[in-house]
Design a protein that fits this description.
By secondary structure, the protein is α+β, with helices and mostly antiparallel strands. It contains 18 helices and 14 strands. The strands form five sheets. Strands 3, 6, 12, 13 and 14 form a five-stranded mixed sheet that branches. Strands 10-7-11 form a three-stranded antiparallel sheet. The protein is globular, with a radius of gyration of 26 Å. Pfam families: SBP_bac_1. It comes from Paenibacillus campinasensis. InterPro entries: Bact_solute-bd_prot1, SBP. Keywords: Signal.
Length: 468
């Protein structure tokens, strides 16, 4: 019995040693044998449903498919399910209630507080704070999803709302390009001169349908020195019905009724306005510059030299070129398990600050070049502009003539201003009605319109905000 016991003990020790050796992850692909236990998600079977580009975004889908392939090679225990649902403020509650939301999904800078208050986004502070690259992130962008000191999202890229001009349409009417340091008067004169209503061409196409109508207009509110809300002793008060608000709304009316510079069919949503620009039906449009330019170059066939990104115009000479600071973020579903949340975080940040990420980007640029397409980077990146990674990225851009480059003066003039902290989309929706009324009825009184809108926003939304 004793010999048998010793043999059994020896076998058990040998098994333990073998288990330890096999558990250190030493393989041909991982000769270093770095630990790969349950904590790093490498053993348990995990399924995550990821945010996936829309069907018409073929280049983006190809890039994401390559990322999926590389990720699952490193984590063969993970099954990736693609979900091309795009965030919609009117759908997220239903998605969460029915447990149909992806493991992580895209959203905007405006949504942080609302998503946190509803419990529709996971607190990823522990994952983020233990991440080795957290100090190299673009702090301006990342701060938009830090609420009460806790991290709720990862920035993908950002923008300061800009104006993009179709130089070709200006050339046709012998209108000189305005200076980058331009004003409302310069925008007005350029829009008026470029407009050709008989040909169906507008000088500028401000968005007039949906929340984006309020979003577009708010840039002018900020430029005139106005604010959406003020906060005192935990109470939120609508203050956009100010002198600055009146100036901004009056300027919209001048473009519509005096200059006849906006589209006759002015009820344009975001995609409508972008499409109008790419089709050469408007000389100017307001949005994130990269979205407009990518569409114009790769779908509209416009040439880079005719698609010029500008900062938003200053209210008057010497003023700031304020545009709404926004961005695209990925947030994690709080209903996901801890393991799923960790793997989602790993997937989101898989290519961040890596040579593989640069290689994938360069491959994407090369593929676009072979297909006669342009690569249009976002003006603001997830990483700090003075980081070593930024230098590596710019070195890649310099190698290719199909990478769109922004005017350095434009980049130096843009001045981003974050949106209101609470109720932003609700406010945009109410202001959309004001914009629509201003475009459809001549002679409306701006102060009265804004007073009524502020009353609506206050009673329906801001008064219901509970003090922190």
């Amino acid at each position: 019995m004793r010999k048998y016991s010793m043999l059994l003990l020896s076998l058990m020790l040998l098994a333990a040693v073998l288990a330890a050796c096999s558990g250190n992850g030493a393989t041909e692909d991982n000769p270093g044998g770095e630990a790969a236990g349950p904590d790093d998600g490498s053993q348990s079977k995990i399924t995550i449903k990821i945010h996936y580009p829309l069907p018409d975004q073929k280049e983006a889908r190809a890039q994401e498919d390559d990322k999926i392939k590389r990720f699952t090679e490193m984590y063969p225990n993970v099954t990736i399910v693609k979900d091309d649902w795009q965030y919609n403020v009117n759908e997220i509650g239903i998605k969460m209630a029915s447990n149909e939301a992806p493991t992580f999904y895209n959203t905007f800078a405006t949504e942080a507080q609302m998503l946190v208050e509803h419990g529709w986004v996971a607190d990823i502070s522990e994952l983020y704070n233990s991440w080795e690259y957290k100090d190299e992130m673009n702090s301006l962008l990342q701060s938009q999803f830090i609420v009460d000191g806790k991290v709720y999202g990862i920035t993908q890229n950002g923008y300061v709302t800009s104006t993009v001009i179709n130089k070709g349409l200006l050339d046709e009417k012998q209108i000189p390009l305005p200076d980058m340091d331009w004003t409302w008067d310069d925008m007005y004169n350029t829009a008026k001169g470029a407009a050709d209503p008989k040909k169906g061409i507008s000088g500028i196409a401000p968005m007039g349908k949906g929340n984006e109508a309020g979003w577009n207009w708010t840039n002018f509110l900020f430029e005139a020195g106005g604010e959406i809300q003020e906060i005192e002793n935990g109470k939120y008060t609508a203050i956009f019905n100010s002198e600055a608000g009146v100036k901004a709304l009056d300027f919209y009316k001048k473009l519509r009724w005096e200059a006849n510079a906006i589209p006759q069919d002015w009820a344009l949503g975001w995609s409508d306005a972008i499409n109008a620009f790419q089709q050469g039906r408007t000389a100017m449009v307001i949005a994130g510059a990269s979205d407009i330019i990518d569409s114009a170059l790769n779908q509209g066939g416009l040439k880079p030299e005719n698609v010029i990104a500008y900062p938003m115009p200053a209210y008057e000479k010497g003023g700031k070129h304020i545009g709404i600071l926004g961005g695209n973020y990925l947030v994690i579903n709080p209903n996901a398990t801890k393991e799923e949340q960790e793997m989602a975080f790993r997937y989101i940040t898989f290519d961040y600050f890596t040579d593989k990420g640069l290689e994938a980007l360069e491959a994407n640029i090369q593929e676009r070049k072979s297909n006669g397409k342009y690569y249009v980077p976002a003006p603001l990146n997830y990483f700090s502009d003075d980081s070593e990674y930024a230098q590596k990225l710019n070195a890649i851009y310099d190698k290719y003539d199909n990478v769109y480059r922004y005017d350095e003066r434009m980049l130096s003039l843009i001045d981003g201003k974050p949106e209101a902290q609470y109720g932003t989309q609700d406010y945009y929706g109410v202001m959309a009605n004001v914009v629509q009324e201003s475009f459809s009825k001549e002679g409306t009184d701006s102060k009265s319109q804004l007073d009524e809108a502020a009353k609506t926003v206050q009673t329906r939304f801001f008064d219901k905000i509970e003090a922190p």
